[in-house]
Amino acid sequence: MKSSVLLMLISATMGSVFTYFVIKSSGPVVYAQPEVAAQRRPLKVTLYRYELKPDKLDRFDDWIQFEHAHHAETVETLERGKMYFEAIFRDRENQKGVIYWLAINGEGGSSVDSSPLEIDKQYEAFMHDTLKKNSSRALSTEYFLIPEFVMRALDQHQAAAH
Fold first, then answer.
1. Do residues 61 and 137 both lie within one domain?
2. pLDDT tens-digit readout, 70-94
3. Which of 1, 78, 81, 88 could be a cystine partner for 109, CB 3.0 to 4.6 Å?
4. Is the model more confident about 79 or about 38?
5. CATH number of 105's domain
6. Is 158 in contact with 37 (CB distance < 8 Å)?
């Protein structure tokens, strides 16, 4: 069984210690304080790769513009899926028809296909319209760094949600 690695970085300018966690997807997470570890729920960090349909690149751009225009409404959808962070990346020079979606989420969230929200229904239609069938791939998470102040915020949020 692989174990995670705990790194400590010391800031020379401030003299303070920041704790970062290296989380290997195939091993347990090692926490600095055992009493805090019992409160934490697992995080899933995944980078997905999707291919866009060649004739739908402009449609994808339209969707991203829609997401920007409806940012607050879109952020509201994250909680029901236990989604803490999402980002979409695109290489416009070398792989114009490929997108990468980075997702950080907790366990037990609801899937987008069970959502009653109109924006989630629009999202599903967009995905069906723009992504090549059977082109998705989840890349292997080798490690993940997160500062302690973010973990504390997630701990507080997860504890309040339970």
1. yes
2. 999 999 889 888 899 999 999 988 8
3. 81
4. 79
5. 3.30.70.100
6. no
